[in-house]
Amino acid sequence: MIEIERKFLVISEVFKTQSHRQIRIIQGFLNTDPERTVRVRLKGDKGTLTVKGISSNNGLSRFEWEREISKTDAEALLQLCEKGVIHKVRYEVDVGQHVFEVDEFSGSNSGLIIAEVELGHEDEAFEKPDWLGKEVTGDLRYYNSQLSKYPFKSWA
Amino acid sequence: MIEIERKFLVISEVFKTQSHRQIRIIQGFLNTDPERTVRVRLKGDKGTLTVKGISSNNGLSRFEWEREISKTDAEALLQLCEKGVIHKVRYEVDVGQHVFEVDEFSGSNSGLIIAEVELGHEDEAFEKPDWLGKEVTGDLRYYNSQLSKYPFKSWA
Predict the structure, then answer these.
(1) Radius of gyration over alpha carbons of chain A, in Å?
(2) CA distance A82 to A78
(3) A55 CA to chain B: closest CA distance, Å?
(4) pLDDT in tens, A94-149
(5) Which of B80, B85, B148, B149 should one mutate to test binding to chain A, selecting the residue with the greatest count of A CBs within 10 A?
(6) B44-92, pLDDT tens digit by residue?
(7) In chain A, domain spans
(8) Distance from CA of residue B108 to its chain's centroid?
């Protein structure tokens, strides 16, 4: 129930040619407080409800609890979410032994592309593709919960 | 997914002699906002996660979505909840065709006893036992989410 991942900005769209899978994601938040984020997600036709705790001090580890829910339930719960539902397309890209999930945001977060890689432990090494930019692991502004409240396009 | 219920204060403890079942409840909130309450509950050994929307204008109907979760998951999620976890004992009391759920709160809400009856539709008649006091249906102060933040003992 602890998730370890590193997060990076993406500096070119080359990753799209390397991606074997794309899927549309719509997600909203029943709570955007980073200490107890509650996320409702529709990924294609699959619904999930996810609760996340605050990150560890280095930003790498975070408590995560997730359950599948039906598409109908996800749609009903999305109606209850705070304003600022997020729309994005997720590209999966194999890089060496890892899979990068690259999210291209649209709507009020368009212009933002973020790549995440999930690790087995905090010191695990991984190959960095050319399109990977600055690391933003642990930077609250790039939490989807915060992007929901303070979207990328509104940043100064 | 719409719940219709009426809620009353309780003016004597006679209900205890009429109750055929009592169970301990511990519950916390991942969000106390009445527009999107997220509740984690341990009722005996059974865990649930419940999302509720805002009440209808007359306070009678409320969107409710609930899933069972394991005791272990409930315990983990309770750690993430806002301050003000609620402890209470629920007494079930058969009254005519209905079952009243009577919650006797402890801790910072001790002194408060609330009875609820669930109805099939908003106009449904039901028998009122002698121990039933003032109706508080739709009064936000008596939502458990609000009692978690502003406990009964702190009221002026």
Answers:
(1) 15
(2) 9
(3) 12
(4) 999 999 999 999 999 999 999 999 999 889 999 999 999 999 998 999 999 999 99
(5) B80
(6) 999 999 999 987 777 778 889 999 999 999 999 999 999 999 999 999 9
(7) 2-154
(8) 16
Contact between A63 and B51 using a beta-carbon 8 Å cutoff:
no
The burial of A49, by beta-carbon neighbours within 10 Å (0-12 exposed, 13-18 middle, 19 or more buried), is given as: buried
A31–B38 C-beta distance less than 8 A: yes
Whether the CB-CB separation of B132 and B3 falls below 8 Å is answered with no
The type of residue at B15 is: F
Model pLDDT for residues B103-120, shown as the tens digit of each residue:
999 999 999 999 999 999
Q: For A2-154, CATH number?
A: 2.40.320.10
Distance (Å, rounded) from C-alpha A142 to C-alpha A136?
7
Phi and psi at B14, nearest 5°, equal -55, -30
Contact B136, B8 (CB under 8 A): yes
Is A30 close to B53, i.e. CB distance below 8 A?
A: no
Dist CA A151 CA B73 (whole Å): 32
CA distance B12 to chain A (A): 38
